[in-house]
Amino acid sequence: MRRSAYVKRLFRHHVASYIGSQGNFASAVMGALKMQYQIEFLGDADTIVHMTHTEAGSPAIAFQLVVEKGWPPGALTARVIDNYGRCGLAVSKPEAVSGS
Q1: Which of 31, 33, 78, 98 has a 20 to 30 A CA-CA distance from 61?
Q2: How many domains does the chain have?
């Protein structure tokens, strides 16, 4: 058997067993796609005021999960960083954005 065919078969076996343990396909896919994110809340001069970690399916969901608990005092912006050190999302505090 070619190596690529073996890897595909092995992958399908593990995915099928994971889906079976989760009960349905949607929950299995969402569980499989979750990733660790680091959310940094920044103050003046981009100093880190507060930092937390969460697991989510996307940077936007990770941010939403953390902000539901409240925006830390002194923080003006936030950035969501994935496991690879990439900034997936940068957000300004709504009150910090000047209106017209």
Answers
A1: 98
A2: 2
